[in-house]
Amino acid sequence: MIAEFGLQHLIIMSGSTSLGKALFGVEELMRTEQMICWVIGASSLVINLVVKKISVDKFAFIESINLERSNPSEFINVLMSWFESQQSRMKVAIEQEQQEIEEKQEQIEDQLEGFMANAFKNVLH
C-alpha cells in the first residue's frame, strides 16, 4: 500500500516536468489542489472505518431487490415506463412536426417555382 501510494504521488508530482506530462498525461497541481486531494483521500479512510461499524442487519431490505426479475410495481420500473411513454410521445410529436415542416417547405418551393415561371414569361413577352 505504501509503495502504491508513493508511486501515485510520484506520478502526480511528475506533472511539473515535461517528461512526466508526456509519459503520464498529467498536469501540475497547485499546492492547494494537492491539499484538497489529500483531504479527500484521508476522509475516505475515515469513512471506511465508520462504515465497518454498521451492522450487516441494517441492509436486510436489499434482499427484496432482485435486478434479474422485472416487477412492474417497483418504483424504478414505474418511473422508467412513464419516462419511456413520454419519450415515445415526444418522438411522435417531433416526427409529425418535421413532416409538417417538410410539407410547408414543398408548398413554398412549388409557389416559388410558379412565381419564377410567371416572372420569366412576363419578361419574355
Quick recap:
With 125 residues, the chain is an all-alpha fold. Helices cover 73% and strands 0% of the residues. The protein has helices spanning 2-13, 18-24, 31-52, 75-124.
Structural class: mainly alpha
Number of structural domains: 2
Q: What is the rounded distance between the termini?
A: 94 Å
Task: Give the helix level as a range of percent.
Answer: over 70%
List how many beta strands DSSP finds: 0
Quick check: average pLDDT? 87
Q: Give the C-alpha Rg.
A: 32 Å
Largest sheet: none
- What general outline do the C-alpha atoms trace? flat
H and E string: HHHH
- Low-confidence region ranges: none
Report the portion of residues in β strands. Answer: under 5%
Please work out how many helical segments DSSP would assign: 4
Describe it.
The protein is mostly helical. The chain folds into two domains: 1-54, no CATH class; 66-125. Helices cover 73% and strands 0% of the residues. The protein is built from four helices and no strands. The chain has helices at 2-13, 18-24, 31-52, 75-124. It is flat, with a radius of gyration of 32 Å. The termini are far apart. The model has no long low-confidence stretch (mean pLDDT 87).
